[in-house]
Amino acid sequence: xxxxxxxxxxxxxxxxxxxxxxxxxxxxxxxxxxxxxxxxxxxxxxxxxxxxxxxxxxxxxxxxxxxxxxxxxxxxxxxxxxxxxxxxxxxxxxxxxxxxxxxxxxxxxxxxxxxxxxxxxxxxxxxxxxxxxxxxxxxxxxxxxxxxxxxxxxxxxxxxxxxxxxxxxxxxxxxxxxxxxxxxxxxxxxxxxxxxxxxxxxxxxxxxxxxxxxxxxxxxxxxxxxxxxxxxxxxxxxxxxxxxxxxxxxxxx
Length: 253
Prior knowledge:
This protein is α+β, with helices and mostly antiparallel strands. It has 2 domains: 80 residues, Helix Hairpins, CATH 1.10.287; 160 residues, Heat Shock Protein 90 (2-Layer Sandwich), CATH 3.30.565. It is built from 6 helices and 7 strands. The strands form 2 sheets. The chain has a 5-stranded mixed sheet. Strands 1-3 form a two-stranded antiparallel ribbon. It is globular.
């Protein structure tokens, strides 16, 4: 039933950009004498919707791969429990502190140098505390998680706001916090924020290019790494996402 709902939601989300592209192309095909500025606007709308559809398809493929990987690991765990060796499990040590600094620097230099990049203008970014920490996993996927959390904070934090990043450790976990002073999340929306295709504000999310899959992908990747992702939020004051990942064995105390 959950899979059927996912397919139905995906079909619904894809239908909107396809309809918009078709309407704009029909307008261009049936109106050869359309003023240049109107024709250019129709082409721009079609291109924007095509880009949005491309992002959505990419997100769907990411979720499908993550689901397949999780099912494979569950099968491997059963095999190991039954006495078979797990030959396919490949875990690499990832320096989470270096990865977090790399992501931070992708955004910070442009703000400091005044580069005209919409993605990198806006709220002030701060590194509060970074503790060296290594985890086992896929560096590209973990970077995708960090970028998604930072992008999400940037989307919903006003220009004069602040976004802070930190990395600490306890006895067994590396803990990343992404905090912002943005619009926050209502108590009614908070329990659903990691659901696939869920948007707290559908119109505003779509205007910002959201597919409703970003945080679902984050949670899926984190769970694949045996970690957890939680959020605390106060409407009008901001949100804090807390990512916890098991430390590599060398860091266990």
